[in-house]
Amino acid sequence: MIAHLKGRLESTGIDHAVIDVGGVGYLVGASARTLAALGPAGEACVLHTDLLVGEDFLRLVGFATAAERDWFRLLTGVQGVGARVALAILSALEPNDISRAVMAQDKATVARANGVGPKLAERIVRELKDKVGGIAIGPAAAAQVVPAGAGADAVSALLNLGFRPAEASAAVAAAEEELGDTATLDALVRLALRKAAK
């Protein structure tokens, strides 16, 4: 799993960026919001990432914030929402706006995104209502510490097991505090699972 990319912005397109990391150019799909946050070509940048794996493809998707990445994972878990639609929603709405729309069951706000009709918008707000409780809304979200390295991979592992983003982050943070900075991914995931189960 690739948790993030830190390098130099080589170029951007309508729906992607090329990030040069140590001489290797990574083609990364991204929302319009993330592309706007990257700055000019040639500048240093960091992207949180998610690796999509299919039968005949590997696709890297990048995000300006961990909250945007968490929402991408939640959105693509809804039937009928693929990566393209999830990125369209994230281009049209900030993570806090999506949280508010889902909590209020406001399908009209979600339907503002390209490619999202009324039926799909209704399914998104209905299916995600029980899952958004774990995502911080407002200024608290900006204050959350984004784990790096093994910590980020451990959070990703817990998210893949169905934990809410806030639960996963809290459990991994507690495990890191107990094990220290030199903890392996395996040890972090095992202890985080025990912490989350309490």
TrEMBL record:
Pfam families: HHH_5 (PF14520), RuvA_C (PF07499), RuvA_N (PF01330). Residues 150-198 are annotated as: Domain III. Residues 1-64 are annotated as: Domain I. Residues 73-92, 108-127 form the Helix-hairpin-helix DNA-binding motif class domain. It is found in: Cytoplasm. Keywords: Cytoplasm, DNA damage, DNA recombination, DNA repair, DNA-binding. Its main location: cytoplasm. Belongs to the RuvA family. The RuvA-RuvB-RuvC complex processes Holliday junction (HJ) DNA during genetic recombination and DNA repair, while the RuvA-RuvB complex plays an important role in the rescue of blocked DNA replication forks via replication fork reversal (RFR). RuvA specifically binds to HJ cruciform DNA, conferring on it an open structure. The RuvB hexamer acts as an ATP-dependent pump, pulling dsDNA into and through the RuvAB complex. HJ branch migration allows RuvC to scan DNA until it finds its consensus sequence, where it cleaves and resolves the cruciform DNA. Has three domains with a flexible linker between the domains II and III and assumes an 'L' shape. Domain III is highly mobile and contacts RuvB. Homotetramer. Forms an RuvA(8)-RuvB(12)-Holliday junction (HJ) complex. HJ DNA is sandwiched between 2 RuvA tetramers; dsDNA enters through RuvA and exits via RuvB. An RuvB hexamer assembles on each DNA strand where it exits the tetramer. Each RuvB hexamer is contacted by two RuvA subunits (via domain III) on 2 adjacent RuvB subunits; this complex drives branch migration. In the full resolvosome a probable DNA-RuvA(4)-RuvB(12)-RuvC(2) complex forms which resolves the HJ. This is Holliday junction branch migration complex subunit RuvA.
